[in-house]
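Worked problem 6 (solution included).
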Amino acid sequence: MAPMLAALALLALLPVSEQGPHEKRLLNALLASYNTLERPVANESEPLEVKFGLTLQQIIDVEWNDYNLRWNDSDYGGVKDLRITPNKLWKPDVLMYNSADEGFDGTYQTNVVVRNNGSCLYVPPGIFKSTCKIDITWFPFDDQHCDMKFGSWTYDGNQLDLVLKDESGGDLSDFITNGEWYLIGMPGKKNTITYACCPEPYVDVTFTIMIRRRTLYYFFNLIVPCVLISSMALLGFTLPPDSGEKLTLGVTILLSLTVFLNLVAETLPQVSDAIPLLGTYFNCIMFMVASSVVLTVVVLNYHHRTADIHEMPQWIKTVFLQWLPWILRMSRPGKKITRKTIMMTNRMRELELKERSSKSLLANVLDIDDDFRHVPPPPNSTASTGNLGPGTDFRRSFVRPSTMEDVGGLGGHHRELHLILRELQFITARMKKADEEAELISDWKFAAMVVDRFCLFVFTLFTIIATVAVLLSAPHIIVQ
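Solution. The predicted structure is:
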């Protein structure tokens, strides 16, 4: 009981308004003969001017002057303004033409503030959904312009004239910043259009919301990881082919880029009007990584080739063993690669003779065998074959025997010497073949190194140019 008595005492202390009866009498006087369907003008031939403004915090400001709602405040106890529900007054049927809302009109019906001079202020808050054409060419460095067209649905320009409340456009003082978009501005424009249905002109006010996408999120979550992954693909060309992970690294990087491309596709509307800039960049990087995988297969093929299966063509020798290493400033142990040596090698190959004299000992042994079988022994020579002094000709040490025993002994030595020479010839041939095979395998491995180095330079240059071209072609880079 005590709280209730306190509340009654508090109400008793409140001052009593003396304008209550006057406001009631004023409302009865104004609304007694008021017709909500009547356009409130003194002269029917003149248009009613409606000032239209927009505050980008879900509020629309609509002001007009109602001729039927004027009074002398001194006659009604100093009452200068009233709050009247909109269903009891005439109000302009201003709607958003390009609305995408199910209810078409997304405003909340609030009271109309009516002043004694007839001015009416209608401030209905609302959430508007409009249709806008989105251009994703420069995504995520894009700017979007969305038009909001407001106008009367039934009154033409001769009956209702919409006037911009502020020539600069909408009021942005109460705008709450968005984490994804940066508001550039919201200019307004008055348009007078004559439609095909009606000869009368219709007036509308169009506000253009200009927004810019904040790129900090996309830059550090999509572009930077893409550049890092592509740089890892470049490092794959420095990996030795014998490690066994060269091809696996390239395929893994290609799959990673595919995942990032799917993330980009999920953030974009499904339209085919334009290709987004970020999608173009990802496709270029994926093309580079896919090409690196193909060329890695070529490098591995070159590295593991043998002389029994493959023979190196002359153009590969010229390109990958001479000119390309010289351009890339690559060195090879035991061989000097310069322009002078390349020209000299090509000239020597053109002037090479069919038979080339050899200075190796084993090759001289083959010459000894040929001379021994064809050169006849000198006459009147002794049968001794031992105690050959220094400088003695090996071929002239064998003489014609004088007895049958000497012939038999010499024949045995002769056969043994032939067997030794055949073994030396076989070993020499095998050693030559092994040297040739080792040299050919070394040439293939060096050609693989040259392809690796060439791909490293080319794809590094391609990645840098693609990244710089994307960033420079964007209207802006980072918007926080």
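Discussion: The CA atoms of residues 173 and 306 lie 77 Å apart.
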